[in-house]
Amino acid sequence: GAGVSQSPRYKVAKRGQDVALRCDPISGHVSLFWYQQALGQGPEFLTYFQNEAQLDKSGLPSDRFFAERPEGSVSTLKIQRTQQEDSAVYLCASSLLEGGSTEAFFGQGTRLTVV
Amino acid sequence: AQKITQTQPGMFVQEKEAVTLDCTYDTSDQSYGLFWYKQPSSGEMIFLIYQGSYDEQNATEGRYSLNFQKARKSANLVISASQLGDSAMYFCAMRVWVRNTGFQKLVFGTGTRLLVSP
Predict the structure, then answer these.
(1) What CA–CA distance (Å, rounded) separates A78 from B79?
(2) A70 contacts A45 by C-beta, under 8 angstroms
(3) Are the C-beta atoms of A100 and B105 separated by less than 8 Å?
(4) CA B107, A92, A28 angle in degrees (round to 5)?
(5) In chain B, which residues have their Cβ closer than 8 Å to the Cβ of A35?
(6) Residues forming a β-bridge with A53
(7) Strand B88-98 to strand B112-117: parallel, antiparallel, or no bridges (unpaired)?
(8) pLDDT tens by residue, A93-110
(9) Residue B45 in contact with partner chain A when CB distance is under 8 A
(10) Distance between CA atoms of B8 and B4, rounded to whole angstroms?
(11) C-alpha–C-alpha distance, residues A98 and A36, integer Å
(12) Regarding predicted confidence, which is higher, B4 or B1?
């Protein structure tokens, strides 16, 4: 497809379970961002990739969160031992050039519910 | 601190009327970008309009215009001739440089839910 694709769209996890969220950016886009959007809030920055390099992970809430983009295209956000406070929509965005200075295109997000 | 403030949790407007969604921002940077996004119930962020900090003219995109008042640090979105399909969450965002890293990220406000009635 032409846009940013995220899967699954919805995920229900039992507390303590590990989850993996996938993002397929637009082909050729260098920059990739993950954002977390809690209910009733705006998205908040989690991490940034330039190709396969993770240049910033300062927004990851805890060491249970891990992101990778091994070949500079598809990215996976992994959450270990999920907690209820991890329930949120996780948005992925990609942009054409390095540095995130060009328009960001967002996926539809993955809604994670931890029960 | 880099911050976006949207003080209107919800707004109502009748179809075909104009509506203004408020946004103020806080930054000490000289170079920054301001965005408005629409988020329908399906979840994706749809880009509406962009204003650069050095742009002297207010940005316009079809029915959307951005009322940029730099001295007041405000970037209000004006939607003219509202349509039923405009009902959604609207987020104001600022693109800022992340210090010592060489990339820019988006900082979002808490959003305004717009409801357009027939």
Answers:
(1) 39
(2) no
(3) yes
(4) 110
(5) 106
(6) A50
(7) antiparallel
(8) 999 988 888 889 999 999
(9) yes
(10) 12
(11) 21
(12) B4
All residues at 6 or more sequence positions from B29 whose CB lies less than 8 Å from its CB, including other chains: B2, B53, B96, B97
Output the six-digit token pair for A17: 């379970």
Q: Taking CB atoms and an 8 Å limit, are A99 and B42 in contact across chains?
A: no
Q: Rounded CA gap, B112 and B48, in Å?
A: 14
Structure tokens at B11: 């707004």
- Closest alpha carbon to A8 in A24, A21, A18, A19: A21
Does any CB of chain A come closer than 8 Å to the CB of residue B38? no
In this complex, how many residue pairs, one in chain A and one in chain B, have their CB atoms less than 8 Å apart?
Answer: 66
Q: Are B34 and B42 in contact (CB under 8 A)?
A: no
The per-residue pLDDT for range A60-84, each reduced to its tens digit, is 999 999 999 999 999 999 999 999 9
* Listed residue (A25, A34, A32) closest to A78, CA to CA: A34
Q: How far is residue B34 CA from its own chain's centroid?
A: 7
Contacts of A94 in chain B (CB under 8 A): none
